[in-house]
Amino acid sequence: MFNIAVFASGAGSNAQKLIDYFRTHHSIKIGLIVSNKSNAGVLQIAQSENIPALVLGKEKFFHGNGYVDELSDMDIGFIVLAGFLWKIPSTLIRSFPNKIVNIHPALLPNYGGKGMYGSFVHESVIKAGDTESGITIHFVDDQYDHGPIIFQARCSINKNDTAETLAQKIHQLEHKNYPRVVEEVVNRSRYEV
Ligand code: GRF
Q1: How many C-alpha atoms does 108 have within 13 Å on its Cβ side?
Q2: What is the per-residue pLDDT for 104?
Q3: 133 lines ligand 1 (CB under 6 A)
Q4: How far does residue 190's CA lie from ligand 1's centre (Å)?
Q5: Distance of CA 151 to the CA centre of its chain
Q6: Cα 130 vs. chain centroid, distance in angstroms?
């Protein structure tokens, strides 16, 4: 089996969808859940799904080996960020070239960058009076929300939408598209020479 690690800092609804999608997959599995927060909801998901979990230490992640050795010991071949709030250190990016993807809850390059996460994104979009938003799946490089875009999907915003209702629409788009896009990118990367 080809092992993916899912990194998440929060509730982990996207992590759950990824787990569900790959549960019966013939060649790809979610082999590890990684979090920077010891009380993140995603760790409970890992436990109830019997998936190994790793809680990152800040010093080692940013100033040590970036957990490269641990990930390689666990035979991880690809990393999927799903609401992971720490910046990925360059040691890790170098060890997983074009093998780390992120999902962002807006249409990049707009509404990205440091501090642009969760409700801050949706509040900014609503405040700007935009009539649409969406999701962006992209490769991770050493700048926040910056690497090459792989996939975008859009939703419309009407005048009654709030940051909360927009967040719901975005979550639906994420749940529907992230697992399938991850599968495509992983397969491409596995068979690339
Ligand atoms: C998602 O909206 C994702 O785009 C963002 O963080 C949120 C994570 O939600 N980066 P969940 O923990 O998967 O429910």
Answers
A1: 24
A2: 97
A3: no
A4: 26
A5: 13
A6: 24
Indicate whether residue 189 lines ligand 1 (CB < 6 A). no
Alpha helices in the chain (DSSP H): 13-22, 41-48, 58-63, 68-73, 90-95, 118-127, 163-191
Q: Give the pLDDT confidence score for residue 192 in this predicted structure.
A: 77
What's the pTM? 0.96
Query: 75 CA to middle of ligand 1, Å?
Result: 25
Active site residues: 104
Q: Is the CB of 18 under 6 A from ligand 1?
A: no
CA pair distance 150, 166, nearest whole angstrom: 22
Distance 193 CA to ligand 1 centre (A): 32
Q: Is 161 in the pocket of ligand 1 (CB under 6 A)?
A: no
DSSP 3-state assignment of 78? strand
Strand order in the sheet with 76-81: 53-55, 28-35, 2-7, 76-81, 100-104, 132-139, 149-156
Q: What is the pLDDT of residue 191?
A: 85
Nearest to 119 by CA among 193, 10, 192: 10
Take atom 14 of ligand 1 and give the residue whose Cα is closest: 13
Cβ contacts of residue 93 below 8 Å, gap of 6+? 100, 140, 141, 142
3-state secondary structure of 115: coil
Q: Which residues of the chain have pLDDT under 70?
A: 193
